[in-house]
Every structure is written in C-alpha cells, then in structure tokens.
C-alpha cells in the first residue's frame, strides 16, 4: 500500500508539472484529496492514497492533503467535506445534493444549523453496471430508461440498515462493494433492469431525505445538484417525480461547475488551511468542534509557505 501511495502521488505530480508547463501557470499550492481506498469512521480510520510528499517533490509545488484524519480523531465521520463549497462558493439554495460515487446532501435545519451526510450509493453502482455493457457510464441514464424496475430488488435496497441510522453518518466505498453490490449483482433481470432499479432507488432515497427535512411546505424547496449524476437526465426526472408531494425547483448549474466543484473544494480547503482558517464544519461531520484539516508538504526549491 505504501508503494502504491508513493507511486500514485508521483504520477499525479507528473501530471501537475505537465499541466503547468502547457498552460504557463504555476499555482502557489495544490489542494489534493487523493483516492479513497477505505473509510471506517467507527475505527477512526481512513486512507486516501496519492502521497502529498511525492506529489510536491515531482510537481515542485507545495501540497496540502490528508483533510479527513483530524476530524476522525475529534470523533467525526471525516465526511462529508462538500458543505464548505456549498456554503462559500455556490448560489443560495435550500438543499445541496452532490451526485458522485456516493450521493450526499447539505442543508440548514429548522434551527439554522448545518446538516450534511451521505444519503446512498450512486454512480459507484451505476458505473459498474454500465461497465458490464462496455460503457464507461450510463450516458444521461439512457440505458436505465430502457430497463424495467424490479420491485424485489428495489425493496431489498430500500431496506438496507444504513437508511435507519441518524446523521451524522457517512458511507464507506468498501461497504458499497461488499454489502450493496452483491445484492445488485445476483438480482434477477438484465443490466438495463438493474440500472433502472438502482436509479429509482437513488431518486427515492434522496427525495425522502428532502421531504423529511423540508420545514416550510408553503415555500418552494430550491435544490441545487452537482456531481456527475447531474448529467443523468433519467435520474433527475425520477427525482422530480418522487418530489411531487412538495413544491420544488431543481437547479442544475453550469456543466463546468458540475464537473469541477470537487476540485474547487480542495483548492478552497487548501487556501483556508494556509490562512489559518477552519475548513471542516463539525455540524456536518459530527466532530467535537470546527477545525483546520490538512497536512502541508513543502516543495523543494520553492519559496516556503508561510501562514498568514
């Protein structure tokens, strides 16, 4: 694992150096999340590979990464981190939904406190199903739209014990692959049927969370959606259908914002780290206090980063 960690960090460092060479731009620092291998808040354990030291050495740019560890030590879930970008970078909305490998939500509760947590598996399952048809992903949900919902599979998914847990809570990718994927894999039906069923599952779970937390039924719930799933027209259509009990408006920002929100989040977290400002909200992760998450790797031959 250590060897993979360093090699992946060096690989990303080379990509960063090539990007700087092609564009003629050299940033003052890099905010880098890395690739999550496992995430187990109960054991206060998380692992994101792509070593910041290796990246800094090759790119010759200071790197800030490892944003989750301190939060776990403070009793938090180490996730989600997205509420920072939702709060500081995006236009105002009542609910912020990110449709990535896992779907998560951010919103202010009736008392004005920030709430954020993972809702359910999302593209991690959809993409794996699409891979079995030779596609990288289900473009706009076209394959899912051709399938038939399998009620037995849908009911089994909706009965997963995770959905009974109260926030703060987060989903481990390994749990998705070890506990959720086998249910989908052995279920009856074609790949399109499974795609359709799981897409319906995602839409239903997200809608229930929004409905349960929509405190003013006389007001339209404004829902901003980012992440790759925002391009899944079938999923967005199903979400509309599942939300028909309440007045709502789904906001899809520009394609560029949808694609690069998580990159902007890492840059923002790195910027706040350098400025000595808190970049993780305890209301979102469940930790004991707001704090500054991250680890700085200085770059050789580069003027040293000095805290403001």
Shape: globular
Radius of gyration: 20 Å
CATH T-level topology of the largest domain: Nucleotidyltransferase, domain 5
* Model regions low in confidence, pLDDT < 50 over at least 5 residues: none
Topology as H/E string?
HEEEHEHHEEEHHHHHEHEHHE
Which secondary-structure class do the elements indicate?
Answer: alpha/beta
The H-level CATH homologous superfamily of the largest domain, spelled out, is: ATPase, nucleotide binding domain
Beta-strand segment tally: 10
Number of domains: 2
Protein architecture, described:
The chain has helices at residues 2-23, 52-59, 69-73, 83-88, 123-131, 142-145, 151-158, 173-186, 191-213, 233-242, 255-274, 282-285, and strands spanning 30-31, 35-40, 45-49, 63-65, 95-99, 102-108, 114-121, 221-226, 248-251, 295-297. The mean pLDDT is 94. The protein is globular. The chain has 308 residues and is of the alpha/beta class. A five-stranded mixed beta sheet has the order 7-6-5-8-9. The chain folds into two domains: 2-78 and 259-297, Nucleotidyltransferase, domain 5 (2-Layer Sandwich); 91-252, Nucleotidyltransferase, domain 5, CATH 3.30.420.
